[in-house]
Amino acid sequence: MRFLRLVGSLLVLLCVLCACGRRDETAARGLQDGKKVVVTTFTILADMARAVAGDLLEVHSITKPGAEIHDYEPTPMDLVRASKADLILWNGLGLERWFERFYTRLKTVPVAVLSQGIAPMPIAAGPYSGKANPHAWMSAANALVYVRNIEAAFARLAPQHAAAFAANAKAYGEKLSQLDARLRQRVAQLPPQRRWLVTCEGAFSYLARDYGLRELYLWPVNAEREGTPQQMRAVVDGIRREKIEVLFSETTLSDKPMRQIARETGCRFGGLLHVDSLTDAQGEAPTFLQLLEVNTNTLLKALAAP
Ligand SMILES: [Zn+2]
Question: 117 CA to middle of ligand 1, Å?
Answer without folding.
Answer: 20
